[in-house]
């Protein structure tokens, strides 16, 4: 199939990109990696009057790692960030995204803006309490706002990006000392969307006891489901996994029943939490 007709824009700097987006408003869509947008256009699931290609905006392709965390620019590809290994959990999640050919073009920030509840990267942003920086052209200058993961991920395929705004970067906080992370998921075939997935972050205190533990689940709600299991973990990871199962609301579909997904999340949560705790103990 072919996409519906649209007017193509190729701005060469951020000012131009934001001015263009401000002008086209709700009639425009941003093209970065295009791994979700192009298929949706071809299947006529959307029909924007304007396509704003930001791939020539070189200032958006950076990845900045520091003690506080990693900031990923809007044009940083999955494979680029994966090779950089600047954040352990982000790196693990990226290895689970689709196939290498997709990761070579797809962008981290684009995946977040797409807000697919079955995708890995929104869950990573959510479990880390990360944020996305949004920019717009306002009163002759660039105005920005930083939106936390909870507010950014609004619903299935729906983020907090407003008409005329561009998601210019995402921030993933560092794990910190005595902290480990893990990502577990199950898909019918490698590279397919997972039936369900769980990423976990566990922090131990100086005595090796659990100081904080939380997970984010994919594929079992309209947005990644984040559950704090610090208290439940005191009775073991099985108890923590049951706590996660209580918080999710999976649905039946052609791929799996709700009951199966609930069971699967329990198994994956136990594995992920145990793996994260072992990593935290090894790094203490």
Automatic annotation (TrEMBL):
Pfam families referenced in this protein's UniProt entry, alphabetically: CO_deh_flav_C, FAD_binding_5
Residue ranges of every copy of the FAD-binding PCMH-type domain listed in the record: 1-177
The entry's keywords: FAD, Flavoprotein, Oxidoreductase
SUPFAM superfamilies to which the protein is assigned, alphabetical: CO dehydrogenase flavoprotein C-terminal domain-like, FAD-binding/transporter-associated domain-like
GO molecular function per UniProt: FAD binding; oxidoreductase activity
Protein name, UniProt field: Carbon-monoxide dehydrogenase medium subunit
Keyword Ribosomal protein part of the UniProt annotation: no
Originating species: Nonomuraea jiangxiensis
Tree of life domain: Bacteria
Statement: the UniProt record of this protein carries the keyword Ubl conjugation: no
SMART domains per the UniProt record, alphabetical: CO_deh_flav_C (SM01092)
Residues that span the membrane, as ranges: none
């Amino acid at each position: 199939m072919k996409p519906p007709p649209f007017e193509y824009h190729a701005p060469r700097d951020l000012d131009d990109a934001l001015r263009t987006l401000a002008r086209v408003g709700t009639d425009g869509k941003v093209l970065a990696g295009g791994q979700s947008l192009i298929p949706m256009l071809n299947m006529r699931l959307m029909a924007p009057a304007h396509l704003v290609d930001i791939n020539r905006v070189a200032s958006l392709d950076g990845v900045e790692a520091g003690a506080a965390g990693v900031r990923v620019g809007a044009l940083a590809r999955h494979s680029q960030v994966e090779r950089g290994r600047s954040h352990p959990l982000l790196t693990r999640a990226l290895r689970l995204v689709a196939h290498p050919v997709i990761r070579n073009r797809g962008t981290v920030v684009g995946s977040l803006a797409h807000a697919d509840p079955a995708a890995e990267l929104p869950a990573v942003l959510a479990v880390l309490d990360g944020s996305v920086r949004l920019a717009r052209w306002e009163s002759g200058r660039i105005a920005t706002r930083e939106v936390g993961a909870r507010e950014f991920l609004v619903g299935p395929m729906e983020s907090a990006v407003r008409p005329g705004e561009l998601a210019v970067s995402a921030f993933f906080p560092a794990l910190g000392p005595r902290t480990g992370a893990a990502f577990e998921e199950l898909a019918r075939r490698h590279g397919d969307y997972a039936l369900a997935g769980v990423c976990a972050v566990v922090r131990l205190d100086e005595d090796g006891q659990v100081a904080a533990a939380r997970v984010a689940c994919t594929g079992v709600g309209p947005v990644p489901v984040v559950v704090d299991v610090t208290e439940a973990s005191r009775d073991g990871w099985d108890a923590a996994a049951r706590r996660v199962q209580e918080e999710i609301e999976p649905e039946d579909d052609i791929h799996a029943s709700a009951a199966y997904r609930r069971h699967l999340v329990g198994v994956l949560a136990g594995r992920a939490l145990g793996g994260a705790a072992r990593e935290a103990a090894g790094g203490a």
